[in-house]
Sequence to fold (94 residues):
Amino acid sequence: MRGWGFREARKYPLLWPLYALCVADLCWLTFSATRTLFFNPDVVLDHKNNPEPWQNHRDKRYRLWAGNYDYSKLRCQAPIIKDGEVIPVEKPKK
Fold:
């Protein structure tokens, strides 16, 4: 087999499933990478206008499955970092 062209692929029909799987994998890779790029909070494209992007997702939850637990009542315990200074967060009283 000399190349990956359409003429050569027509001569070997047993390799058609291999070509189909390669095309399907490339489509899935493109979809997955695009979805991660646009919808994952860990990916930041604009550092100039948003120098501290982790503060936007401070009280939000990014989970695949939360179960029966209500995360809306939890408060983030991480300190607030602004312009290189650390502002401690008060712990909730029980």
Observations:
- DSSP finds two helices and two strands in the chain.
- Strands lie at 80-82, 85-87.
- The helical segments are 6-11, 16-39.
- The radius of gyration is 24 Å.
